[in-house]
Amino acid sequence: MIINNQNPEQADEPDFKPNREHKNSVFSLLFSKPDVLRELYSAIEGVDLPPDIPININTLTNALIKETINDISFLIDKRLVVLIEHQSTINENMALRILRYIDEIYRRIVNYKKIFGEKLIKIPTPEFIVLYNGEAPYPDKSELHLSDAFMDIEGLAREKKVSLELVVQVYNINHGHNPEIQQKCETLNNYSLLIDKIREYQKTGLTLANSIESAVKYCVGNDILVNFLKEHGSMISDILFQEYSLDDHLDARYQDGVEDGIEIGTEKGIKIGTEKGIGIGEQKIIKLLKSGKSPDQIIKEYDAKDA
């Protein structure tokens, strides 16, 4: 559900239009309501926003941030916020992906014919927030920087200020993390409890479908997201099943890639080592590859030891 709360008195404000094609996730369905979104944003920023501050929601399709449908973009108090939930491993390229995303949003809300005029066009201040809900260990809060991807950032540009930067704030919203945010936003806390319960039931041996069904029943019986779960009924279970099936698929694909990379790297390392007459055990090579070293780096280190 995409909501447009455009204030007719703000004629100079960007004209946000609701996106009817965006596919809902449980996250976007739950937080795509002005009051709930205001509560969440206030908790994250540590402020109390009055209820009369309008929120305009304009979420793009997931074409630019592939495999992520848990995204909401909205305008609040002259700030343009891109909010994304991640249920899998944090992608280190998220800042670069959001750069494409925010460019598309500004294209939609700014009359680009006016950028050739002399008068300065005012645009909403951007903020980028990722809420991490995956199972892999992750700190309560971290930042991703676009500049981390820049080449020669320590060389030629050492004495220069970076000309382009984009900072993504990442918050771990798993149950038990960032308690101050969870306490200020009951909806977020309850959502985290729902996800935590699904995983808890899965660990007992239940199938994904049965784990979701049991978690939903638990939440309804314990006054957690009761109205939301009853309002949307079985659709919530269907969406959760699709989300977690996709997440499992992506995780399996990632693990397959890691294993394939290690196998190829091991073969290459043994081949190079044999040619150079360096005896390196296969398990040692695998351990070094997992640490992030390339076969060539491993061989160089052993060359240096022998020198």
Question: What would you say this structure looks like, in words?
Answer:
- β2 (71-76) and β3 form a beta hairpin.
- Strands 1-2-3-4-6-5 form a six-stranded mixed β-sheet, with helices on both faces.
- It folds into two domains: 26-184, no CATH class; 233-307, no CATH class.
- It is an alpha/beta fold and 307 residues long.
- The chain is built from ten helices and six strands.
- It is 47% helix and 12% strand.
- The protein has helices at residues 26-31, 34-45, 94-109, 179-184, 186-203, 208-221, 226-232, 234-276, 282-290, 295-306, and strands at residues 55-57, 71-76, 79-86, 125-132, 141-145, 167-172.
Topology:
Elements lengths: L25 H6 L2 H12 L9 E3 L13 E6 L2 E8 L7 H16 L15 E8 L8 E5 L21 E6 L6 H6 L1 H18 L4 H14 L4 H7 L1 H43 L5 H9 L4 H12 L1
